[in-house]
Predict the structure.
Amino acid sequence: MSATQTQTQGPHSLAFRVMRLCKPSFHVDPPLRIDPFDLLAGEDFSDDPSSASLFRRHVSSADSLDSDLSYRNRFLLNHPTDPIGLSGLLLLPQSFGAIYLGETFCSYISVNNSSTSEVRDVTIKAEIQTERQRILLLDTSKSPVESIRTAGRYDFIVEHDVKELGAHTLVCSALYNDADGERKYLPQFFKFVVANPLSVRTKVRVVKETTFLEACIENHTKANLFMDQVDFEPAKQWTAVRLQNEDCHSTEDPSASALIPKSPVIIRSGGGIHNYLYKLNPSADVFGPTKFQGSNILGKFQITWRTNLGEPGRLQTQQILGAPVSRKEINMRVVEVPAVIHLNRPFLAYLNLTNQTDRQLGPFEVSLSQDESQMEKPVGINGLQALMLPQIEAFGSNDFQLNLIASKLGVQKIAGITALDTREKKTYELVPEMEIFVESD
Amino acid sequence: MFKESSPAKDPDSPESETRPEFNPSSTDTTATTNPSTVQTAIDSDSLEATTFESASSEVTSAAADLPPERFNSLDELTHDLGSLHELSTRGSWQAILEKIAQARALFLLTKPHEHLTYLTYQVMALVKLRLSDEAVHELNSLHDFDGTHYRYESFPEIYPNRKGSMVPFSLRWLYALIPTKLGNRQEGLDRLYVLLDFVRDRIRDKESQNLDDSVELWKKRETFVMSCLLGFHLGHKEFGVSLDLIKELINRDPLDPVLISKLGSVQMQFGDIEGAKATFDRVEKMLNEGKSNGLLDETQFKNLVGRNKALVYVVAKDYVSAVKVYDECIERDNSDAIAVNNKALCLMYLRDLSDAIKVMENALERVPTAALNESLVVNLCSMYELAYVNHTDVKRTLNNWIARVAPDDFDSSSTRV
């Protein structure tokens, strides 16, 4: 059960025995048990009711002779559900197993005196050593164990929340006086490696005013993970709502559904995934400049999973970033478009031009940029191809309308609209590009 | 005396010279030509059986429509069946194999169903002794289960007025199970699902013929096969399928506290603690309201609820409370091996390895037939390995004791000696 161990000095009176104490597990072991009716006679024997009752009588009279050495519980069915093999018997962990970031390492440590004489004044220490630090789990130096008799033991249990990846070493050491009064030092090292249990891949998509966040959680462990809690904590400037299918339990088995109200989210071991979708909206209480000056941090995930017998693991992700926020001097964006946009029919788009600097800028000329390809843009300006906008003061903004027309069906982008600062001769692009859906007439 | 035909080694052509009248001379002739024939003593009622058409499913009145031959003990049904049954409950599988070999060598089995019963015991013994490849060999000697070879009506002179299949259901089940014992899980699962379909067909069959006793029996078999399948899926951590199966089982019998407790255990196994708690609360409510399907007596029911409660404490790491509840269970029923085992584990998680070991050893001494199971032994050996630097000696002592007391099918590799 213990990992590698090394000793530095001569023959020691003491020795450490170590056993990882993760939660015990249910032993699932379908037994070979039968109903005597299924063995002692043919399967259609009871078609004849008198045979059936006769048979029952003979079998029960045979069973009433209860001998001393009866292992009938290993052969005859006790309860119809015995074949499931889930008796409720708990089994101790049989191997060290794998350990992952976010879990709790728990271990039983026993110091045995395997010599023929007593040892005295025993100071025991247990620490976890990683690449970065040394964490003390137990130290009896303030009140050393007075003595451990021959064949005696001193036991303790240590716990440590695993917060680092990579190699870890459990260092157990004992400082003691042996039978000859010699002060001896016994260190033992038990190594284990901590791996990453999950990876979280995110995708951010902006549709009109709403930002959608899709997160895919992949399970890299050897166990199936029950996702107890997956919470997205949005940054201050956002509010988030989880989007999920309402569990459609039809009229079937009302009694059983009451017991299992919703299908649990269990991600399969070794590469299983589960997706989560969130709708993010800017918080109501955040206005103006902060929205644009602030970072594009959307928030982070807090994940709690459980394995066998509820053994928990907890992790949080790094901050998830949204679409890059323009830090340009001028920001131009589409605020609103009509709900329905038809092919070749002009529609009004509401835009906003914001001055993010501390000085007055403009006046501006807003037009569709002419690029080299001369290809007709799917969304163009209808009517006058240029619009003049007055100056905008520091940190101010200007709302304006553009008459647009779409010449292609389907999902199209409003792109290529530029604002030219006529004084400073600087051009600013429409950001972000807005997607619209063009229907036929 | 009903004269027996020649030993039915060749079921296709049973050479039956059946005469209902007692004919001492013909008996002697048979005796000289075939000394190994065994005469079966049958009730005088059956003499009249052959004069009736075999419409055996209608039992209108005792005189008008007689049932198939009566049997006054298991031995009358099949040669030495009582002894086989007793040996099986003692776990003396080697003795059973020897008995079967002897019966065959001395041609003691005469009726077709006896061969089938003995074959089933043989396959069962081989699988119990973890000799499944030999079991396959025996199964290969069988004809198709659903053919005419194994139907009572194919031998009207041996089984007057009896219809149906003489194949013991356990044989069908063993046939389905064997591939999994040999590592071919997929084939085993397929066969079990086919078996489930077969059982459901039989239920519909018997229902249409109003054979109530049989319907009840086949429904039990349906639960049996479903439970087997559930065990296999659970063992492979296939929780989706397992939950579906257990839901189906609960629908069949919503008042089974053992079944519902198993649902709670499954939920705990994959980590849904809140769900498990709710399920266990339901079972406790059933105890308090006196609602159950009657398969448990009061002590068993209370212990079931107690063990469920203790599990919730174990999950919450409140081992002290868990031990208290387990102690109550053990006081009610000192052969509750699950409570004993789990209590010992709790003591160990409370840093009290010595008492944990004592609890296990005491149980093995006091109630060996209840406590001796492979999982308990594995746990005890893990504790020995932790407690003693030189644990080989103490494990060997345990091993020797097991060898004296354990049944033939006990897996002694569980001591890891």
